[in-house]
Design goal:
The chain is an alpha/beta fold. It has nine helices and six strands. The protein has one domain: 3-Layer(aba) Sandwich (Undecaprenyl pyrophosphate synthetase). The chain is globular. The structure holds ligand V07.
Length: 257
Amino acid sequence: MLDRIGQMMVRKANQSEQRPVFDKAGEIPRHIAVIMDGNGRWAQKRNLPRIVGHRSGMQTVKEIVKAADSIGVQTLTMYAFSTENWKRPREEVDYLMKLPQEFLSTELEELIERNVRVRMLGDPQGLPPHTVEAMNIAEERTRQNTGLQLNFALNYGGRTEIVKAVQDLARKVQAGMLKPEEIDEAMLTQHLYTRDFPDPDLLIRTSGEIRLSNFMLWQLAYTELWFTDVLWPDFTKELFFEAIAEYQSRARRYGAV
Ligand code: V07
């Protein structure tokens, strides 16, 4: 109990100094997944074009990547573009497809210096070649890096990911490499885009929507979910640390029973 009070006091002192509110000695989530929602709404509230919101949201991505790296998160997965986003106006989609290149043109050198490994999760088919090319270069140049594993989910859909895994397995059965009864959860997991990463410990979604929107459906089965009304361009590393503090306090509560 004294310990709890001590932690709360630290938390208060920290908040005024804008230092992390989470417990550094506590468990840092190994894998954090983020649904970066609210960019268009942020712009509309200011009577600005939606693309200005996306540009502003990209600045938040930079801040959160650095924050995650600085506290030793192993894997950070950011939902940048869903298979649903193709329904948006052509102009907006064209603009969004330029953001990976733009982000990497200013950030890739620093990511390399920080030992960050960049990867794309999703279907490269259907993305413009210039977008895929920029991602391939980033993947190639960071392939040896062992620090933060930074994933961008692009043209990603959770159900499609599972369907593709099932198709892979069905092909193996048909080729006689596999018996249906040998298929188990672990094997299906190995056929998902995320085969190299643990399941997320924590999912953060901004902008007040309380749903998964087809993001990492299989992987989020046991994940702690954290929602905020704050729109993605207004999201800060302090809020990111607050989500981690909440994750830690839930872990302590479960530990107590
Ligand atoms: C995008 C900015 C953030 C808010 C969400 C939608 C708009 C960063 C990337 C990105 C992607 C790949 C990569 C490096 C950066 C990005 C898209 C949209 C499509 F290797 N932000 N961001 N990609 N937005």
